[in-house]
Design brief:
Blueprint: E1 2-7, H1 17-24, H2 33-40, H3 49-53, H4 57-61, H5 66-82, E2 87-92, H6 104-122, E3 125-133, H7 139-152, E4 157-163, H8 175-183, E5 188-192, H9 198-206, E6 209-214, H10 222-230, E7 234-237, H11 239-244, H12 256-261, E8 265-268, H13 280-291, H14 295-308, H15 313-331
Parallel strand pairs: 1-2, 2-3, 3-4, 4-5, 5-6, 6-7, 7-8
Helix pairs in contact: 1-5, 5-6, 6-7, 7-8, 14-15
Length: about 325
């Protein structure tokens, strides 16, 4: 019922692409929704994270105006509410939305407007996580993202992330960014242990990460697993996405159940609903079927997400009450698959 790891540009409804294209002055490469969906959803033959990330090119073209940014966030919250979620933390990289004149600040302001309208209209709790991007020539843009995150912290923005191709751009290269973020009191969530090994997770912890995006390869380092448990670091695991990017070669190698048995703070997330062709209920049901998770384990996954969410103590209590009342009725539906 809570999705902590959800990318805006990877979760655009194909049906919305046409309206967003009009808002952005973009001509789409197809006129039918089915054809657009083919360009947004990753193929079964995806070979790696770099190939997976190519599916973000088209959505980013229609996310270049304040109007389309606000619309995208609002519509995503509408869909998540309809799916039965009570909390979502939506992430995007402001620097990727400045191709047509928007500043990073304006892009974030527009997203916040969509967030405010969506939470009010649909009664869903939500926050925004701003992503810095791995790369060689974008330090100035990343520093600007840190400053924008500080400006809107607690006003819609709840954390700072580091995203992009981890294999090409090591986590440690961005230490200065997260040193500044820590000094400014901005919580850090860092993609790590997905396309790189456990050393990437260790480095993310050194940089102050309180949650790890994915963290799959931490399983290769049992000392690190102990550190994650002792520090109660949340792992934002995304099953379908992790298989599609070949983070692991097979479901049998996926460490979610092993992490659960070690009592790590593991959570279930979609990553990119459209690119991965999934939703949160589908992810829970896939995991239940693949690993024979008990009802108690399934519920623990949901409670872990509530514990790790960037919310107040009062909001956390409310989220847990919603999970307690509704989790199994939410999960017991056949329409997710």
């Amino acid at each position: 019922m809570i999705d902590l790891h959800l990318h805006l540009d990877g979760s655009i409804d194909p049906a919305d692409m046409f309206r967003m294209a009009q808002m952005s002055g973009v001509r789409l490469p197809a006129e039918r929704e089915e054809e657009i969906k083919e360009k947004l959803v990753v193929s079964p033959g995806c070979r790696n994270l770099g190939e997976y990330l190519e599916k973000f090119d088209l959505p980013l073209q229609v996310l270049q105006t304040g109007e389309s940014m606000e619309f995208a966030v609002y519509r995503l919250l509408e869909r998540l509410h309809a799916q039965g979620l009570c909390r979502a933390e939506i992430r995007f990289a402001p620097q990727l939305h400045t191709e047509k004149g928007l500043t990073q600040k304006e892009a974030v302001q527009a997203a916040i407007q969509g967030l405010v309208r969506g939470t009010e209209d649909f009664g869903i709790s939500a926050g925004l996580i701003l992503c810095c991007m791995r790369g060689a020539q974008n330090q100035a843009q990343n520093l600007e993202t840190v400053a924008v995150a500080e400006s809107f912290l607690g006003q819609g923005v709840c954390a700072l992330d580091l995203a992009g191709n981890e294999a090409a751009w090591p986590t440690g290269d961005f230490a200065d960014l997260f040193l500044q973020a820590g000094q400014r009191g901005i919580p850090a969530v860092i993609h790590a242990g997905e396309a790189a090994g456990p050393e990437s997770v260790r480095k993310a912890l050194e940089l102050g990460a309180v949650r790890i995006g994915h963290g799959i390869h931490a399983a290769q380092d049992q000392e690190l697993v102990g550190i994650l448990k002792d520090k109660k670091i949340c792992l934002e695991m995304c099953y379908s996405s992790n298989l599609q990017t070949r983070t692991v070669d097979s479901p049998e190698e996926y460490p979610l159940k092993a992490f659960l048995e070690r009592e790590l703070s593991v959570t279930v997330n979609t990553d990119n609903m459209t690119v991965s062709d999934t939703n949160l209920k589908k992810e829970y049901l896939l995991l239940q079927g693949q690993y024979a998770l008990s009802p108690l384990q399934l519920k623990q996954l949901a409670f872990n997400a509530a514990d790790a969410a960037f919310v107040t103590k009062e909001e956390r209590v409310t989220l847990k009450k919603q999970i307690e009342r509704k989790f199994f009725s939410w999960l017991d539906c056949s329409d997710a698959l």
